[in-house]
Amino acid sequence: MQFKDVVGQDELKAHLIQEVNQGKISHAQMFLGNAGYGGLPLAMAFLQYLFCENKQAKDSCGECNSCRKVNEMQHPDIHFSFPVVQAINKKSDFFLPDWRAQFASQPYFNLNQWTNRIDDKGRTPIISTEESQEIIRKLSFKSFEGGYKVMLIWMAEEMNLQCSNKLLKILEEPPAKTLFILIADSQEKLLQTILSRTQLLKVPRIHLDDLSKYLQIKYQQDGSTATSIASQTEGNLIEAIEMLNSNLEKNINRDLFIQLMRVCYKKDVNPMLDWAEEISGIGKERQKTFLKYALHMFRQSLLRNYTENQLTKTSAEEEAFLKNFSKFITGNNIHGFMENFNDAVYHIDRNANPKILFTELCFKVMRFIHFA
Ligand SMILES: [Zn+2]
């Protein structure tokens, strides 16, 4: 990871570059700030710069042997410690392949996303006493390549009390040429004894302009959407991407819904079958999200008819469609729509054949829509 790939954070980048170039590197640094602001990517760019064999004025070269190894999280002198699910394994090393894969695919991630990756049961991960012994053991060896030895501890606030206590001495007086990089989300959960032994680097929210520019370039968003998402998520890149994905899904559902209502209204059998074919291929979870979205739209239509648009919760695009459509949802057919779409969710959950299910649903919609 190079500094140029870290979104925003220009002040911190300048500070870290200066630290390396002036040779004034503190032996224990704490990157403190929400994961969505980029503590881990910043720390990795810093380490890559530190180890780079061909440093440029403002970034690592990105090409030398060291840069490659740091980037792949394969450098023998950089060790990683992070919360893991104790019931699976007590040591971080066991999860290193997952850790590297996560960083390679998306270096901005939070504890929740990490937990989802390593455990489908969603159990709470911690950094345990066993891991603290492992940390001390790893740092007792000389560095492989004669330079710094680094211990990066991600989500340091998840160290349990025994683990934290075991590390106090080595944090205070680390072996020569040892660097601790601690990364934490929230100060409240951190022990004062740990905090007082580190140099604190506060990672602030990403400037809105920087985040907006990133969303425009990386996710092809138009300027006003990107700025609106950046500001709604208050400079948090992880939340911005989540919002983007959920907006995208909403748009897909909206288009599927409009299409279904149109073909059923026109009683166009072939397009109805095409529609059923299309939705059969999108997978169970997305089918369920669509059905729930449709239920929401039926309720909104009815509400619109009875409250003259006072209580509806719809976007401008949905509103444009509902303006003409809502009159087709009335007391005569709402029950049929709700019952059949709810049933469909139930049957999808129990692995019903989606093609049969959605084809039947199309014919029911056709009947109900002409029974307003
Ligand atoms: Zn390099």
Q: What is the name of the CATH superfamily of the largest domain?
A: P-loop containing nucleotide triphosphate hydrolases
Which strand order do you get reading across the main beta sheet? 2-3-4-1-5
Q: Helix coverage percent of residues?
A: 55-70%
Q: Classify the beta-strand content into a percent band.
A: 5-15%
How many distinct folded domains?
Answer: 2
Could you describe the 3D structure shown?
The structure is a single chain. Helix content is 56%, strand content 7%. The model has no long low-confidence stretch (mean pLDDT 94). Strands 2-3-4-1-5 form a 5-stranded parallel β-sheet, sandwiched between helices. The chain has 2 domains: 202 residues, Rossmann fold (3-Layer(aba) Sandwich), CATH 3.40.50.300; 129 residues, Up-down Bundle (Zinc Finger, Delta Prime, domain 3), CATH 1.20.272. By secondary structure, it is α/β, with parallel strands linked by helices. The chain has 16 helices and 5 strands. The longest helix has 30 residues. Helix 7 links the parallel strand 3 and strand 4. Helix 1 runs parallel beside helix 2 and helix 12 crosses helix 16. Bound molecules: zinc ion (ZN). The site of zinc ion (ZN) has 9 residues, from helix 3.
